[in-house]
Amino acid sequence: MKYYAGIDIGGTNIKTGIVDELGEIVAEDSIPTGADRPQEVVLQDIIASVRGCVSTAGASLSAAGMGSPGAIDSERGVVIRNYNLGWKDFAIAPAMSEALGVPVTLENDADAAALGEVVAGCAKGAKSAMIITLGTGVGSGYVIDGKIFRGCEFGHMVIVHGGLQCTCGRKGCFEAYCSATGLIRMTREAGITEDDGTVNGKTIFDAAENGNKAAAELIDEYIEYLACGIANLINGLQPEVVGLGGGVAKQGESLLAPLREKLRREVFGGFALPRIVSCTLGYKAGLIGAAMAGKNLAASADR
Predict the structure, then answer these.
(1) Which domains does the chain carry?
(2) Burial group, residue 144, by CB count within 10 angstroms (0-12, 13-18, 19+)
(3) What is the pLDDT along the chain (303 residues), one digit of tens a residue?
(4) Contacts (Cβ under 8 Å, ≥6 apart) of 48
(5) What residues are paired with 143 via a beta bridge?
(6) SS3 sequence of 236-303
(7) Cβ burial 178-189 (10 Å sphere, 16+ → b, else e)
(8) DSSP E strands: which ranges in the chain?
(9) Which end of the chain is more exposed for a tag (fewer CB within 10 A), N or C?
(10) Rounded Cα–Cα distance for residues 59 and 6 (Å)
């Protein structure tokens, strides 16, 4: 059995672990990111954490993979820019490779999570899958034939021309309407809040469940936007599976059932509707996916 290290870099915590060639985690660790520290100092913590996992697993590494947010140059293994972490032109993969003595690949964190769901989660065994994360933004990752298709920033495709301002600078982006942030904005604008006046991604669903007609109408509007964006992806890429992750997707069938109905009307005639499912791995998706990206790197090097 061969083993691979996976590193999932987050703004608050960094998950590390050892994954076997079947996608099973055999050892894992979590360390605080400490993003206020120099990037080289954070790197040393990551190296120590991975080495600790290797020791716990009693494994010999074949390769490693890293998933990081921000602008990534996967070919060079460089984080070009990550504003949340304060990283700039950080050649993290070559440094990790030198420290661990194995090949290391660097992937976008959403791409890594998508690969994890294909290997061991909601899209296990699928030849192609689009994984969409409905969180602070809208993350997207496309996997085909077990490999990451890099460069999928579908959260910033426009679904409403001249629409709401997006953080990326464009107007009408998928992310502006369908992220948890967008849903919270819509909920607040409708005057629907928790008893203490706060609003979160679940507020609107709880209100609808309690018989609030305005909330139910707002959810329908939100799902219309979501169906528009996902239908564009289905029409262009025809994935076998579409998996939804993030806090909003935790609503399960109360979100997915009406979404499927709307997609049947939106998807181009003649195209079969993919399986529309909730992601199942949670934080483990990024860890497993990063390790499996390392596995793919090692396999390509052996050819």
Answers:
(1) 3-108 (3.30.420.40), 122-278 (3.30.420.40)
(2) middle
(3) 999 999 999 988 999 999 999 999 999 999 999 989 999 999 999 999 999 999 999 999 999 999 998 889 999 999 999 877 889 999 999 999 999 999 999 999 999 999 999 999 999 999 999 999 998 899 999 999 999 999 888 999 999 999 999 988 999 999 999 999 999 999 999 999 999 999 999 999 999 999 999 999 999 999 999 999 999 999 999 999 999 999 899 999 999 999 999 999 999 987 889 999 999 999 999 999 999 999 999 988 766
(4) none
(5) 129, 148
(6) HHCCCEEEEECCHHHHCHHHHHHHHHHHHHHCCCCCCCCEEEECCCCCHHHHHHHHHHHHHHHHHHHC
(7) bbbbbbbebbee
(8) 3-9, 13-20, 25-32, 61-68, 71-73, 78-82, 87-90, 104-108, 128-134, 138-144, 147-149, 241-245, 275-278
(9) C
(10) 13
Q: How far apart are CA 274 and CA 122, in angstroms?
A: 13
